[in-house]
Amino acid sequence: MSLQTRPWRLAVAGCGAAAFGLHLPLLTSHPAFEVTALADRDPARARAAATRFAVPRVAGTTKDLLDGADMLVILTGVHGDLIEAALDAQTHVFTEKPVGLDVTSTRKLADRAQESGLLLEVGAMRAHDPALHAALAAVPDLAGGWLIKADGVDEAARRRLLPPGFSPYTFEDDPPQAVPEQLSGPHQVTALQTLLWQGYHLLTALVLAAPGITPAACTLDADGRSLHALLYGPGAEPVTLVISATPPGRFLEQIHFSGPSDAATVDFARPYESAATTRVTTASGEQSGFPDPFAAMWQAVSDRLAGQYPADLPTSAALAVRVEDLALALAAICRPGPHPRKD
Questions:
Q1: Distance CA 12, CA 23 (A)
Q2: DSSP string covering 188-214, please?
Q3: Does one domain contain both 140 and 286?
Q4: 245: DSSP letter
Q5: What is the pLDDT along the chain (343 residues), one digit of tens a residue?
Q6: Domain around 79
Q7: Which of 12, 45, 288, 294 has the smallest number of CB atoms closer than 10 Å to its CB?
Q8: Is residue 343 in some structural domain?
């Protein structure tokens, strides 16, 4: 890519809590970026974001949004059409994860971007998390472990980030997304949604820790609210994955990796709170105060735009395909759990 002598011009689609609480505060203060336009399906929400973050333009159409942009930042719930429009306009793309529910489409979009010489960056924040990488360094030879997420704070946290009068978006507000044809039952579709909407960060950690991980069993409870899975690493190392509903106010996101000589446990910060509260516990003690993985992710995007990111590292699109492949493999073998007895 040519030498850049000005900030990268970003157009942002989607002005929900992630925009207000994470992306726009960082992007509008980062010297490498200039946010030039915003859009949202609720124009009032886009205008509120433009006012708060001093963005000069609210776009009414995708064509208008893309005008003059170097990169489209997609913070909506459904991404495919916007990615296509950006690639049509020869514009780089950053999209929140997952790219979609159908990994076949994700592969096509990633291939199309690469063939066009464009970036398709995916918001896999956990891949840039210093705490996770500290745990991986402590346990270079995985012998087993577990990954757990139980989140009853996300909606309330998102609500606090929005201006008065606006409510958080939900997946139910989004247009339906295509799902892989090989999923034979509704419970398998729910499992895929759970894995990619709630468990994406856990799956990212898992494919980084054990690239050859293989699903062995998966169960979704009768209410479709809790998923349990068993996987094996390339050397038959057992790993348990749990994504569960929890009462409001309760939160747990934890990863534990064990090896032949050490183990590491990561207790992640609550959503939208400082990453400095994340803790890594090993045999040698406890670490905290880690740098912000979200800021590291956007620095990596800036480096890639400038052509300065190491070519031998996998792209975020390649990592996204691996995560979506794993989610699909788990969903395809997922079985519904028994209904609780009422006697």
A1: 9
A2: HHHHHHIIIIISHHHHHHHHHH-TT-E
A3: yes
A4: -
A5: 445 679 999 999 999 999 999 999 999 999 999 999 999 999 999 999 999 999 999 999 999 999 999 999 999 999 999 999 999 999 999 999 999 999 999 999 999 999 999 999 999 999 999 999 999 999 999 999 999 999 999 889 999 999 999 999 887 788 888 899 999 889 999 999 999 999 999 999 999 999 999 999 999 998 888 999 999 999 999 999 999 988 899 999 999 999 999 999 999 999 999 999 999 999 999 999 999 999 999 999 999 999 876 655 668 899 999 999 999 999 999 999 876 655 5
A6: 8-96
A7: 288
A8: no
